[in-house]
Design goal:
CATH topology of the largest domain: Single alpha-helices involved in coiled-coils or other helix-helix interfaces
Low-confidence stretches: none
Mean pLDDT: 95
Order of helices and strands: HHHHHHHHH
Distance between the termini: 58 Å
Shape: rod-shaped
Structural class: mainly alpha
Number of domains: 2
CATH superfamily of the largest domain: Immunoglobulin FC, subunit C
Oligomer: single chain
CATH architecture of the largest domain: Up-down Bundle
Helix content: over 70%
Amino acid sequence: LNQPQRDALRNQINQAQALATVEQTKQNAQNVNTAMGNLKQGIANKDTVKASENYHDADADKQTAYTNAVSQAEGIINQTTNPTLNPDDITRALTQVTDAKNGLNGEAKLATEKQNAKDAVNAMTHLNDAQKQALKGQIDQSAEIATVTQVKQTAT
């Protein structure tokens, strides 16, 4: 829980008129706390994700979706006013981060570019088999689309 959430929940407990309300607030606090822990864990590797090939060569809209989902999650975590007290809202933010992360397509695009480049090299009649194999080896070792493109251009 962040401090505004603690304060708001403590205030709800202090103003409760019945034991059932206190118990309900306590249960909600536990649910919010669990959801917040999951949310923090869900964005803990954001820098690793943003440094990955899957993010680096992903479509711009997919990068933006991930960045925005992480920003929204950080907004909930770092709230100073108007705390989010609904665990479903917090879980929804985590789902958006997870979905956006899973939607990143840089690795798939790299695999497609590698295959396209190898097909192009195979079709080059001015290269012998040893040259083709060497270029395809360089393509297979390429860690990003820009490198694949560079190897393919070198072959032409």
